[in-house]
Amino acid sequence: MKVLTLASTAVITSTLGGSLLLSPVHHDVAMAPASVASLPLTGSGSPVLRIKHPVEVEAIPAPTEIYEQYVAPPAPTPAPAAARAVLPAGYVTIGVPVYRQTRALNCETGALQMGLAAYGHYYSQDALFAYENPDMRRAVVGANGTVSKWGDPYTNFVGSVNGSETALTGYGVYYPVILSIARSHGLPNAYGGEGFSPATIYAELAARHPVEVWVEARWSRPRLGTWTAWDGRRIRYSLAEHAVTLSGVSATSVRVNDPQFGSQYWVSKSTFETVWRDFGNMAVIFR
Fold first, then answer.
1. Which of 109, 166, 216, 281 is deepest in the core (most CB within 10 A)?
2. What are the residues facing 238 on neighbouring strands?
3. What does pLDDT average to over the chain?
4. Which of 41, 18, 52, 50 is nearest to 221 (CA)?
């Protein structure tokens, strides 16, 4: 496990539409997947460039105990006062370390690792991933080239963590698995689900609670689709599925800890809300 220093801070703007729903914070959220009866075409079917990692040994040793905790890494050397960015009033930032994902498709685990570390619980990504019980069965592809059947990311990591989404050899995992690991690794008050309002997420960030959210790599929005899991559940998916940890909020933006790049940057609320909606406003709140 390696702590990466913040390479840069940037503000990403977008003309994508999005609206802030001024609903109160609710901790009771709908746990059922969003309706997938009719999904919009949200973009082109072009593959999204992902960071490639060296293929490692597929088998990850099963953990010998749940709380095999690492020693906290040393804190980064503070930047000289003159070099620190001065943020306008109204910004709230959370001290969440930035980690880069260690395998091709374990962005959800990298985002979880950051959320746990914000509270002083340090684990390697492989130690956390050992609880995701990957389902290695291959996808069944329909006549039109889309996925017709595959695993259930609500119960297991789907495919190979060293695989490829576009090649249909690996995919990812959704909030129930990540939430379960967070609760058993030091954050029993964490909660998650789908159907969150943006106002709930912004309120949690303002209260200095990091939030893992499901979006699309590079905020890209290729086409959405659905497949039927082996257990019969209908799965909403994108072949650019990605997870990041939000670590700050302002009047117009959210700060993103992105495990794909091991970087931290700001993105507009309109961009965040539009892309986050593609996964039914799925999130895990670390608290």
1. 109
2. 224
3. 80
4. 41
pTM over 0.90: no
What was the pLDDT predicted at 36?
A: 41
* Average pLDDT of the residues in 63-76: 45
Cβ neighbour number for residue 263 with a 10 Å cutoff: 17
Read off the pLDDT band of 223 (50, 70, 90): confident
| Measured distance CA(105)–CA(202) in Å, rounded | 27
Q: Which residues pair with 245 in a beta bridge?
A: 212, 257
Cα–chain center distance at 56: 22
Side chain identity, residue 37: A
Poorest-confidence range of 16-20, 96-100, 110-114, 267-271?
Answer: 16-20
Terminal-to-terminal C-alpha distance of the chain: 22
CA distance 252 to 277: 18
Among the listed residues 71, 172, 161, the one whose alpha carbon sits nearest the alpha carbon of residue 123: 71
